[in-house]
Amino acid sequence: MAQPPSQYTGFLYFVVRSPAPFVAHVQINRPQKLNAFHEAMWLELRDVFRRLSTDPDVRVVVLTGAGDRAFSAGLDIQAASQNPVLQGGGGGNDTDIDAARKAASTRRHISEFQECIGSIEKCEKPVICVLHGISYGLAIDISCCADIRICTRDTRFAVKEVDIGLAADIGTLNRLPKVVGNFSWVKDVCLSARDFGADEALAVGFVSQVHESKPGAVEAAVQVAKFIAAKSPVAVQGTKEILNYSRDHSVEDSMSSQT
Questions:
Q1: What is the pLDDT of residues 68-81, one digit of tens each?
Q2: How many CA atoms lie less than 13 Å away from 144 in the CB half-sphere?
Q3: Is residue 254 one of the residues assigned to a domain?
Q4: In which pathway does it act (predicted)?
Q5: In this structure, is residue 243 part of a structural domain?
């Protein structure tokens, strides 16, 4: 696998390689913590995907998680508990900030978090997400932003936020109903925070392929990426843009946007 270009070597929590011409492989790289996210990670994620979006040497992106145990366990709860903004503070040293200013600060923080995760969806290049092992909470937010989802047989999914007293506010509740098209099932998994497996994910259309092992799933994703990368990049990127626009607009509005 080729070494990363210089613009991708400075990241602490992501490794970028090129397994094939015009294909970038982005790996979430915090396996000792099950690839759980803290603030520095989602800020890096945004930076990685902004660069990939405009990189002329990249036409397709494969996104995976390092290690054998998890794509991502979601939000790093321990790190979040030490974040003054997420704990209702203003993010500074003043503990006497009034409630309105605290709320405004928290809202700005969450909006930035949403923007960082949404950078995957906004990336001009198609993104293929390979899920394995534990794929909880933020893993669902991330994968909903991808264009194609592939998983391993051992993947355990969950929209876990209800279990920690939260509503999922980083995008799952907005994107998942449009990804699978089964509102009853979406409410089932979101309201209960229950686990579901690869077969159920395939049955409702959340993933399009299931593989027995992580290496097999990654290889399948790279093969799909190579196939797409061989197409006209202008046509591919235009197709992604139109499909995403049509998902969020009426047929008439979508057709008008193309003229």
A1: 999 999 999 888 77
A2: 27
A3: no
A4: Lipid metabolism; fatty acid beta-oxidation
A5: no
CATH number where 39 lies: 3.90.226.10
For residue 93, pLDDT beyond 80 = no
Q: Could you give the CA distance from residue 169 to residue 110 in angstroms, rounded to a whole number?
A: 8
pLDDT tens per residue, range 3-37: 566 789 999 999 999 999 999 999 999 999 999 99
How many domains does the chain contain in total? 1
Is 240 a member of any domain?
no
At 226 the pLDDT is 98
- 237 found inside a domain: no
Q: What is the pTM of this model?
A: 0.91
